[in-house]
Write a structure and sequence with these properties.
eight-stranded mixed beta sheet, 18 strands
Length: 435
């Protein structure tokens, strides 16, 4: 579908033959997943801009994103007129277009389209075969604002084809190893393409925005304005959301020698680990909780230190359990080593106050039996959500803080979709599981 100077408007009918068109034409009759292959760039064309409202700076406003403005008037024949402008945009089949002086209709390549009044953005996942990439497809397939761009399986390592799709995208997710993510960034020449990288390659780079919306006030604004967003690590998400507010409030000194213990489902190890666990039917040693990264050099440590404000890397001990997904990070603290008044009750109050307006962070009642199952803590309790649950256990001498999330949801693909929504000005929960 191209937009050119045309003799007259021609009606555009909805239906599967009009995949990828805009105006009042539908995308595949509103199917859950609309995968299109973008046309080649047109250097003479120009994209229709999207205006976004600006919200006042406050904690509540920072949590919300402004809706994008669409076309104000739709005319017969599929034409639309933008608000405050006499310019018409008329969708026409390629073979029906001519060039006439005085009438310019821009060709839309990766600009958002319209379906049922909702803006649609072109989205590409580079690295579609991995665990995070597959889960992203699950979320995006049901996203009302997304048109998925697909790459043929035999071309997944074709740099030219990847470059074409990356540059045709409004948002591109990089679900690749670190080295491949660096290479993918060099393929992007379109300054309007937003990259959301799921690797560890850019998480501590000053040129990339850290993709943890709940990190601090103002973080959502940074995500909205940036074209380079580094998605957060699963262990790091849980650890940072648990520790950062306590350091900011002064109830946990930045010099405190923090230890942290994590257990996660075997899906966190990717396709190879999933196969190793499931082929052995979770029997023998594989079914046990297995500790790893005992060289104390886990790849999430740099972001865990940088974004909490700690003076030292935490002594972080992760482990893999004999369950598919789910993650919890536990942080034990000696109350006597904290500032006066920093009791478990006070720590709980700080976390509650910090996250009271956050839709995807839930602070659970302190020391409540509802947090346990037969006196055991289940790391799978937040599975199937895009939520982080925070807990405070203990007594006046020692306490244990725990953060729990779905390592494939809020710990990976769910966080990536949340970042995309914020960047595009869409309500954060669109396309994400409720609860």
């Amino acid at each position: 579908m191209a937009f050119k100077k045309c003799v007259k408007p021609i009606p555009v009918e909805g239906g599967n033959n009009n995949r990828g068109q805009v105006g009042h034409a539908s995308f595949s009759n509103g199917s859950a997943e609309d995968c299109v292959s973008p046309a080649a760039p047109n250097p003479r064309g120009r994209s229709i801009g999207v205006r976004r409202q600006k919200w006042k700076a406050s904690a509540a406003a920072d949590r919300r994103t402004a809706p994008t403005a669409g076309f104000s008037e739709r005319l017969s024949g599929g034409a639309v007129r933008r608000a405050g402008s006499s310019e018409l945009v008329i969708p026409l089949p390629e073979q029906s277009c001519q060039f006439l002086p005085g009438l310019f209709l821009p060709r839309l390549r990766s600009a958002p389209g319209l379906q049922g009044g909702a803006m649609r953005y072109s989205v590409f996942v580079d690295g579609q075969g991995g665990t995070t990439g597959l889960r992203l497809f699950d979320y995006l397939a049901n996203h009302s604002h997304v048109r998925l761009l697909r790459i043929e399986p035999e071309k997944r390592k074709d740099s030219k084809e990847r470059a074409r799709l990356l540059n045709a995208s409004d948002v591109a997710f990089l679900c690749l190893p670190d080295a491949a993510a660096h290479e993918a960034v060099t393929l992007v020449e379109n300054e309007k393409t937003c990259l959301i990288d799921a690797s560890t390659a850019f998480r501590t780079s000053d040129e990339w925005v850290y993709g943890l919306p709940e990190l601090a006030l103002g973080q959502r604004r940074k995500i909205r304005e940036s074209k380079r967003i580094a998605n957060v690590g699963c262990h790091a998400s849980a650890f940072i959301l648990l520790i950062r507010p306590l350091v900011d409030a002064g109830v946990l000194p930045s010099s405190y020698p923090v230890s942290a213990f994590s257990q996660t489902g075997y899906s966190g190890g990717g396709k190879a680990m999933i196969a190793a666990y499931e082929e052995q039917h979770l029997g023998g040693a594989v079914a046990a909780c297995r500790t790893y990264a005992l060289g104390m050099d886990h790849k999430h440590l740099p972001e865990m230190k940088k974004y909490t404000g700690l003076d030292y890397y935490p002594a972080f001990v992760p482990s893999v359990g004999g369950f598919f997904k789910g993650l919890s990070v536990s942080v034990p603290l000696q109350v006597a080593c904290l500032p006066p008044g920093a009791t478990p009750k006070r720590l709980h109050e700080v976390l509650t106050a910090r996250y009271q307006d956050e839709p995807f962070v839930r602070v659970m009642p302190q020391d409540s039996a509802i947090n346990l199952e037969d006196d055991f803590f289940d790391p799978r309790g937040s599975n199937g959500t895009n939520r982080v649950d925070l807990f405070v256990f203990g007594n006046e001498e020692r306490c244990c803080l725990i953060a729990r999330l779905d390592n494939l949801g809020k710990g990976a693909a769910g966080a990536a979709v949340q970042n995309m929504n914020i960047h595009l000005g869409i309500e954060e929960g669109v396309g994400l599981p409720a609860g």
